[in-house]
Specification:
mainly alpha, globular, 21 helices, 347 residues
């Protein structure tokens, strides 16, 4: 073979490999196959394949597998959607930096942490709702959301929900129920290893460690609560396991997103919970109650820098007569700005 011909073959193979490496997974098609949907049903239920639906479906699938770096990458930027905010916040919380990142991303108030269930809830948002509850250790809520998502899905079927239901039952020790879901999944292309790694009696060491960790998060006591009593559920999780860092981040940040500073101060431990976000919120509470004293500043461990910034914010507010634009330019990423100017969309 001539050197010219060998070089041509080499170039062809190189471009072929480059083409393969640049190809992206179509979450839309994975979702379609995992729900056994025809093209027409997929379009009727989820719409035409486009960037928005591709991203939303991808977030559900990547989070289900715990690919938090990928979730962060997919939500990076200024996507102003509830589902993107929800998954971005969860990814940040899994990395232990929810508070430090909270004001640097679009926040639809409490819906940025918990997907509500109501008459207008989409099937996709119900499916997403399960993820935070599972990671927090609240298996009843996670199972309920997965079952609802499956019920409202076309054909009442879906691989993501079967995976979540299998995991929930493995965590809670309901092995026979888990086996039922695992057997259904074993018939799905590409799920063989996922199933074999989790089948009771032959679980991989990685899965055993994951299940052990999740069991440590389970609440000791059952409480009666509604679907939207988020603080009660989080407080119960923390009463059972004070080291549940995800629940602690969610409790404090939920207080702040719904602007409930009274509950935040009760839940907040300045010796344990450190973030500039918390310092900013504590300063608002102290100012509203005329309790900005050296003793309280010391108790809440508020630095001179943050205190000075707070005074500068207040001075600019007075100078600009409350105009939002000057404050947003300089303080748009502070809790002070969010607390004062963020408004709920009631439509």
């Amino acid at each position: 073979m001539s050197s010219v011909k060998r070089f041509s073959i080499y170039i062809f193979l190189l471009f072929s490999l480059m083409s393969c490496s640049d190809s992206k997974t179509s979450y839309y098609r994975i979702w379609q196959e995992g729900h056994h949907l025809s093209d027409s049903l997929m379009i009727d239920f989820y719409g035409e394949e486009n960037e928005a639906i591709e991203n939303a479906l991808g977030l559900v699938l990547e989070a289900l597998d715990g690919n938090w770096e990928k979730v962060e990458e997919m939500t990076r930027g200024s996507r102003k959607s509830e589902i993107a905010a929800y998954y971005h916040n969860l990814a940040m919380a899994m990395k232990g930096c929810l508070a430090d990142s909270l004001m640097y991303y679009y926040q639809p108030f409490g819906r940025g942490l918990f997907m509500p269930i109501g008459d207008e809830s989409t099937q996709l948002k119900i499916a997403a709702r399960s993820e935070a509850w599972y990671r927090l250790g609240e298996m009843t809520m996670a199972e309920h959301a997965a079952m609802l998502a499956q019920s409202f899905s076309p054909g009442h079927y879906g691989v993501p929900y079967l995976k979540r239901l299998a995991e929930v039952n493995l965590v809670t020790g309901q092995e026979e129920a888990a086996k039922k879901y695992l057997r259904l999944l074993s018939k799905e292309p590409g799920c063989e290893k996922w199933v074999s790694d989790r089948m009771p009696g032959q679980q991989s060491e990685e899965v055993k460690e994951h299940l052990k960790k999740m069991r440590s998060l389970l609440p000791t006591y059952d409480i009666v609560h509604g679907q939207s009593q988020y603080r009660d559920v989080l407080k119960n999780l923390l009463a059972s396991n004070p080291d549940n860092q995800l629940a602690r981040q969610y409790l404090l940040c939920y207080d702040l997103l719904i602007k409930d500073l009274g509950s935040f101060i009760k839940d907040y431990d300045p010796m344990r919970d450190r973030s500039r976000l918390y310092d900013e919120a504590a300063l608002i509470y102290l100012a509203l109650h005329n309790e900005v004293t050296p003793q309280n500043l010391s108790h809440f461990r508020i630095s001179r820098e943050v205190f000075q910034d707070f005074n500068d914010y207040d001075n600019l507010y007075v100078l600009s007569k409350g105009a939002m634009a000057p404050l947003q330019k300089q303080y748009g990423n502070t809790y002070w700005f969010f607390y004062q100017y963020a408004k709920r969309n009631t439509k």
